[in-house]
Design goal:
With about 625 residues, the protein is α/β, with parallel strands linked by helices. Helices cover about 25% and strands about 20% of the residues. The longest helix has 18 residues.
Length: about 625
């Protein structure tokens, strides 16, 4: 690859003394940096010729302090129009739809203490509890108690409560109270909007500039405010001991991303007929295996770790990112942060020329985790319709057993390969699935099913993942794909935390129990095989298993017994010898012993229990 320079530093390198611009454009015959004072128009407009360096990279160093100026590139030669400004794919601060981006003195955007803060994150993915959230949804509701609703800065506000009940914490305090270890933030990389307040709602899965925060969530749209405000949100999480994972969409871009303009036919996979292949279902797919495209992804994620101190990445349609790129990334980022979390969706959105696709079978054993969709579907049934699962009908017991073991008898090599979940931003929420699948069930029955789902999830081996609002029965009024639905559908309704206080307390208690007992967080296949034993259940719709806690570092229980009853009837489970403490029953969960049991215990319909000896 005569055009591959793995060590080139592309984009803008700023110091107060000089600014260096570098862009990869091997097909151009001329290249210019366009400098300006405004996002559009001719104010302060200057054009400076770049010189052709090696490997297709153009370069220019301009003396002086250019912070606050805007810049773009212009290319000449066959197929290029030198009058057209093209954005820098490495730009760190876009300003809406203009191809011109801001030259930024990045250290000046750090909130006080941003570089110095230290925070502890879990040693292993199985010790983490991930909470998926959307910047806007989380605080936009009138009852969020947050001042800067829907904004990066709204995530920094402590002490917020439900307006009519100061006992109900909202916002970041809610996350601390719940006990999650990480937030996974839905896309904040610059996406296809105009960044106006009145823009229609959009999740952000059509990315444009991967190194710039989107301005829709910023208070200050102009200037570098978006960088400072996002850093403030990340710092607020870190100060509360919560890691930050970015949901990233390197598998495709919006039409007006600059890659194709700079190097036609290079950054996207093509069909035999020469068209964009569409494995993303969004019009194109990024050619992660092309050397400078792979370098772009690796440079970009490293930038987010070094500049914003993020703690991990969740890859949208990870099936489309070739495995070698994922492995190189994991190795690269682990050098900066040994506890970095890298995981994603092990599937595509359509047919792709990539061989092989990065599936669960490819990622197993690599340190890159994948979502265990088999467990998700076994817990709650069909995603947007279809049949019920274990929590409604006691169905799919065999699949639940595989999920509880961290997928090691399904697809995973070790439990650290698998993400356990039953709800995320895609598809019906679990509560809406219950409304669809148990239409005649009482409110109490559905709550009990939600508690059983939480119990199944949070006692499973692997890395648990919960969707924002799941902990208090989030509803999107039956919308299974709400990416463009208004706030009324997508916002977190904080009143539900009070209405469904039992489901919330149950999630909170189970997270505390999981954190207190390493038996639920085994790291290797060998440990799961040795310690987790399934007994023959007293009902075909029930599951009974024991975890041997002896000589497990940090484990106070000799034996942990988990009983799950997916049947419509109460089930009596035999307990074997001795006295057991009950820590979880059908309605309560936590680290305190609720009662004692011996001989046998009756578990009500559609509920479960955790006992310890």
């Amino acid at each position: 690859s005569r055009f591959y320079d793995p060590d080139a530093r592309l984009g803008v390198t700023y110091t107060p003394e000089q600014t260096t611009f570098r862009v990869f454009a091997p097909g151009a015959l001329t290249a210019q940096v366009v400098l300006a004072d405004e996002v559009t128009g001719d104010a302060g407009l200057e054009r400076h010729a770049m010189r052709a360096g090696k490997k297709g990279i153009w370069e220019l160093t301009l003396p002086g302090d250019h912070a606050g100026k805007l810049y773009a590139y212009a290319l000449g030669g066959l197929g290029f129009d030198p009058d057209v400004e093209i954005a820098d794919p490495y730009a760190v601060c876009m300003q809406g739809r203009s191809p011109r981006s801001l030259i930024v003195n990045l250290p000046a955007t750090d909130p006080p203490g941003f570089r110095e803060q230290s925070y502890d994150l879990p040693d292993s993915p199985v010790d983490a509890v991930i909470y998926e959230m959307h910047v806007r949804d989380f605080t936009i509701a009138a009852n969020s108690g947050v001042d800067q609703k829907g904004k990066y800065l709204g995530l920094t506000e402590g002490g917020t409560t439900l307006p009519d009940d100061p006992a109900i914490a909202t916002g970041i305090d809610h996350l601390v109270e719940l006990g999650v270890t990480h937030v996974q933030i839905m896309p904040i990389q610059d996406f296809d909007n105009h960044e106006h307040a009145e823009d229609s709602y959009n999740w952000g899965y059509m990315p444009v500039h991967f190194n710039s925060p989107d301005g829709w969530f910023a208070q200050e749209i102009r200037g570098p405010g978006r960088i400072r405000e996002l850093k403030a949100a990340i710092q607020a999480f870190h100060q509360r001991g919560i890691g930050v994972i970015l949901d990233v969409v390197y598998n495709h871009t919006a039409d007006w991303a600059p890659f194709e303009e700079l190097v036609p036919g290079y950054y996207f996979r093509l069909t035999d007929a020469g068209n964009f292949s569409n494995g993303s279902g969004c019009g194109n797919e990024f050619a992660s295996e092309a050397p400078m495209a792979r370098k772009y992804i690796l440079d970009s994620v490293r930038y987010w770790v070094e500049e914003y101190r993020v703690d991990g990445f969740r890859f949208d349609l990870m099936g489309l990112i070739d495995l070698e790129t994922m492995r190189l990334m994991k190795a690269d980022l682990e050098k900066i942060n040994p506890n970095i979390l890298i995981y994603g969706e092990p599937w595509t959105g359509g047919h792709t020329p990539l061989k092989p696709v990065t599936t669960k079978d490819q990622t197993r054993g690599t340190g890159v985790l994948a979502f265990n969709d088999h467990f998700r579907d076994a817990i709650k049934g069909g995603r947007d319709g279809g049949g019920p699962g274990f929590i409604q009908a006691g169905a799919d017991v065999g699949k639940i057993v595989k999920g509880l073991m961290g997928g090691i008898h399904d697809w995973a090599q070790d439990p650290v390969d698998a993400i356990a979940y039953f709800e995320c931003h895609d598809n019906l929420t679990a509560w809406d699935k219950l409304l669809q699948s148990v239409p005649d069930g009482s409110d109490e029955l559905k709550r009990r099913m939600m508690r059983l789902a939480a119990l199944t999830l949070l006692t499973a081996q692997g890395m648990p993942f919960i969707h924002s609002g799941q902990e208090f029965c989030r509803s999107k009024q039956g919308h299974h794909n709400s990416y463009n639905q208004p706030d009324e559908i997508n916002q977190i309704d904080w009143q539900r935390k009070k209405t469904y206080a039992d489901v919330y307390a149950y999630h909170r208690g189970l997270i505390a129990l999981r954190k207190a007992h390493p038996a639920f967080r085994l790291r290797t296949r060998a440990e799961v095989e040795r310690r987790v034993h399934f007994d023959s259940p007293p009902s075909p719709f029930a599951i009974t298993y024991r975890i041997d806690g002896r000589d497990l570092p940090g484990e106070s229980a000799e034996t942990v017994l988990v009983l799950l009853n997916g049947s419509a009837e109460p089930v009596a489970f035999p307990l074997g010898e001795g006295q057991w403490g009950v820590y979880v029953d059908g309605s309560r969960a936590g680290t305190d012993r609720l009662t004692e049991a011996q001989g046998k215990i009756t578990v009500p319909a559609r509920s479960g229990a955790v006992l310890m000896r």
